[in-house]
Amino acid sequence: MRYELYYWPGIQGRGEYIRLALEEAGADYVDVARGAHGMAAMMKMMEAETTPPFAPPFLKAGKLVLGQTANILFYLGSRHGLAPKTEAGRLWLHQLQLTVTDFVLEVHDTHHPLGPSLYYEDQKAAAKKRTDEFWSERVPKYLGYFERLLEDNGGKYVTGRRLTYIDLSMFQLVEGLRYAFPRRMKGFERKIPGLVDLRDRVAARPNIGAYLASDRRIAFNEDGIFRHYKALDA
Amino acid sequence: MRYELYYWPGIQGRGEYIRLALEEAGADYVDVARGAHGMAAMMKMMEAETTPPFAPPFLKAGKLVLGQTANILFYLGSRHGLAPKTEAGRLWLHQLQLTVTDFVLEVHDTHHPLGPSLYYEDQKAAAKKRTDEFWSERVPKYLGYFERLLEDNGGKYVTGRRLTYIDLSMFQLVEGLRYAFPRRMKGFERKIPGLVDLRDRVAARPNIGAYLASDRRIAFNEDGIFRHYKALDA
Questions:
Q1: Which of A228, B35, B91, B199 maximizes the CB count within 10 A of its CB?
Q2: Architecture of domain A3-79
Q3: Are B54 and A118 a contacting pair at CB < 8 A?
Q4: Rounded to the nearest 10 degrees, what angle do helices A165-180 and A139-152 cross at?
Q5: Residues of B with CB below 8 A from A49's CB?
Q6: Could you report the per-residue pLDDT of B159-173, keeping only the tens digit for each?
Q7: Do A49 and B152 touch (CB under 8 A)?
């Protein structure tokens, strides 16, 4: 079965956590909206009469259409060896991914504190305040939590001795924060040595390495979740 | 088995979606942090060596400790007749609950646009701007989506002919918006007649009615997610 991934074609965004999982698994998939007429196809799916997704990303798997990043990873994880086999293990992993979801929304809020439908340029002062709070309070809380889980597990992977999709998400968070806030992140990384090491090991995996070197990996840019604005990194 | 629910004792907050599901199901549970020494017990659980929750709410079900509201509902739903029986149906329902999760975070952002660790009093101007955008863009988008799902299903329940936990969440969203923004909500309700009717039918269910009339239902207040600030409702 060839999966169909639907997501905005110009950004990594929330779709990237799914792309990383599909790539690591070596799954057969097509990134629909990046192909010819792909955006029209995506918009049409959102007008479906049954189970219309609220927003991209969503994944078509046979007859099933799944929305919400963490929900899609929950589905893919157990089918592609990227999740534990037990129900308890899968729910724990999903819980962690939902915490990543919360964090990603807070990342987005750093440049859009006054709302997602206004331009960054119209909320620069508020963005600076929100970003200061994000780095003083939220980044230490979220990444400190995952660093502690990694430590408690002996430092190999977040949930144990085998790689799961949460490790791929940790890679993406470290990469994204490095892109958006290079100066702030440089100072912070000494507090999360385990996550930085995990990031390196994920990047070195054959399938992930090949993906990162391909044009399937979209470059970070200022339309995505992780945006580099000099004023926010000062 | 008696469930143990752990959540901040003075607010409805994110715990309320779980309380509503437990009450509708007539499940045996204890709201731990509201009892003697409950807060200490909750804090101790968060320092656990295995599967420590990132934040309340979390639910202890036998040996299992589950965090993240939507994850807890996913677990409870299939065990208490509040979710469809098929995998596709359960994932669809979960996807909808995750969309509620996103909306709830945006509700919180209306009074805390500059970050969750600052006081509302220190971000009143930004809160006003965020709230205006919330009502002009976000409420119509989110509630319009659920209203449409309800219509497409014939108007009885969001996912079909049987009540699920998403219907309880719809009740809570309507109640919360009425509390926090009575003036704005009054003007908006004519756009979501189906959800308003669903709210009434949920409130009239025997178990929910008994719960709402009991002291187990905490009153809305200005420490929760839905907060009534006159300036934001103008």
A1: B91
A2: 3-Layer(aba) Sandwich (3.40)
A3: no
A4: 140
A5: 152
A6: 999 999 999 999 999
A7: yes
Minimal Cα distance from A143: which residue of B?
B54
Q: Nearest residue on chain B to A51, judged by CA atoms?
A: B92
State which CATH number among 1.10.275.10, 1.10.150.390, 3.40.50.1980, 1.20.1050.10 fits the domain covering B87-205+227-233.
1.20.1050.10
- What's the pTM? 0.97
Closest CA to B59 of A95, A90, A69, A89: A95
Interface of B with A (CB under 8 A): 49-54, 63-64, 66-68, 70-71, 74-75, 88, 91-92, 94-95, 98-99, 101-102, 105, 109, 113-118, 123, 126, 129-130, 133-134, 137-138, 142, 145, 148-149, 152
Q: First-to-last CA distance in chain B?
A: 48
**Residues A56-114 pLDDT 10s:** 999 999 999 999 999 999 999 999 999 999 999 999 999 999 999 999 999 999 999 99
Q: Report the amino acid identity of residue B98.
A: L
What number of other Cβ atoms are within 10 A of residue A230's Cβ? 8
Map out the domains of chain B as residue ranges.
Answer: 3-79, 87-205+227-233
Q: What is the domain class of A87-205+227-232 according to CATH?
A: mainly alpha
Handedness of CA B40, B42, B43, B48 (dihedral sign): positive
